[in-house]
Design a protein that fits this description.
Oligomer: single chain
Largest sheet: 2 strands, antiparallel
Number of strands: 2
Shape: globular
Strand content: under 5%
Radius of gyration: 32 Å
Number of helices: 14
Distance between the termini: 84 Å
Order of helices and strands: HHHHHHEHHHHHHEHH
Strand order of the largest sheet: 1-2
Helix content: over 70%
């Protein structure tokens, strides 16, 4: 029951993470529509995240925090670079050079890339000859296929609810910047590299969790390095100081929510789940973001739902069940206590034979002792002194 509870806890936590990230995605859209530069948004996100999580980690884990080593610091630096500033900025640049639809589709290659890299680094067992291994591979492919179906196939419009409510019309007070056009091939390359970086971030998280079991403190280091890299990158790319101004509007709300909740709290949750179930398990939940964004978008952005969204969402959810089942079977097999070996019939016969030999030897010794004692008695009687 404890193992089942851990598996259910990890699943629920990752669903919550994707719900939170869907809110960040919607708020990114609102801030971009309001004209905010997304590079500046990323920099502010990690600055707010660092300002929140650093003091929290300092006080919560001050008594159990192990000594910080150069190895852990390197892990945190790489996580802040790959999963933070560099990974997000590359994906945003890809979005500018290609399209939002293409970027959304490329992000869903992360589970497959993570699985391949984890297998190559021997952090995940392929186990193709086992039912659990087949389930992990099949579920990963199902998730990617469902995400592609969700993104590229629309079909007829499905009206489940109509709110006639659009936050973009309410929050947009500034002219949005026109999307830049660029090299499509470069955009594709940047998207793939971003997915690889995100996968490496999850894998490094697994390595760090094994040597530094303090998720809050490690997340504080990661977000600190991400804020450093993100701020330097944004300052180099955006020197219009009007873009850095924050007022009491959607921009401040977005960076505060994305930084405190998204980077400060959810990064800690991701680090914990990676330590519990590994990087592949975490990455498989990434396509679930599409479903939540579509639902929230239809509610507050007046976006439409299509048949492709419904079919892709069903396939994604089925993929999550398949991978979760395969992972739970694999972990159960690994953590199952090895039963004591039953004594075979031959061993039992051998033990019985040994016992008989020991009894016979003891009996012979008794006979010899008795015989010797009898001889002494006989000698004493026949030769009295």
């Amino acid at each position: 029951m404890s193992k089942v509870g851990d598996g259910l806890k990890a699943t629920i936590l990752m669903v919550v993470v994707q719900v939170i990230f869907s809110g960040i995605n919607i708020m990114y859209k609102l801030a971009a529509t309001d004209g905010m530069d997304l590079r500046v948004l990323v920099a502010y996100r990690f600055l707010f995240g660092a300002a929140f999580i650093v003091p929290v980690a300092f006080f919560l884990e001050r008594k159990k925090r192990p000594k910080l080593t150069w190895k852990v610091s390197l892990f945190a630096l790489l996580c802040g670079l790959f999963g933070g500033a560099l990974g997000q900025n590359l994906m945003l640049e890809s979005l500018v050079l290609t399209s939002a639809t293409f970027s959304a589709a490329m992000v869903n290659l992360i589970p497959g890339i993570t699985f391949i890299v984890a297998v190559c680094l021997r952090l995940e067992n392929l186990g193709w000859h086992t039912l659990a291994g087949k389930a992990k591979v099949l579920g990963t492919l199902m998730g990617i296929g469902g995400a592609m179906l969700f993104t590229f196939y629309k079909g007829p419009n499905i009206t489940i609810w109509e709110t006639n409510f659009n936050l973009m019309k309410i929050t947009s007070h500034h002219p949005s910047h026109a999307a830049e056009t660029g090299n499509l091939a470069l955009g594709v390359i940047l998207a793939i590299v971003s997915c690889v970086f995100y996968s490496l971030w999850l894998i490094i998280q697994a390595k760090a969790a094994a040597v530094y079991p303090c998720p809050q403190s490690f997340t504080a280091l990661v977000v600190f390095f991400a804020s450093l890299f993100g701020t330097v990158s944004a300052l180099c790319m955006q020197r219009d100081w009007s873009q850095w101004k924050l007022g009491w509007d959607i921009r401040l709300l977005t960076v505060a929510y994305a930084g405190i909740v998204g980077s400060g709290i959810m990064f800690v949750v991701i680090a914990q789940v990676v330590g519990m179930r590994g990087p592949v398990f975490v990455s498989v939940f990434n396509p679930l973001l599409l479903i939540f964004v579509a639902i929230v978008g239809s509610l507050v952005l007046d976006e439409k739902l299509y048949l492709g969204s419904l079919l892709g969402g069903i396939l994604i959810i089925a993929a999550l069940f398949v991978v979760s089942w395969g992972k739970s079977k694999e972990i159960k097999k690994i953590t199952q206590p090895v039963p004591e070996e039953d004594t075979s019939i031959e061993d039992q016969e051998r033990e019985k034979s040994s016992d008989r030999n020991n009894d016979q030897l003891v009996q012979e010794q008794k006979n010899v002792s008795i015989g010797s004692h009898a001889d002494q008695i006989e000698i004493t009687i026949t030769n009295p002194k």
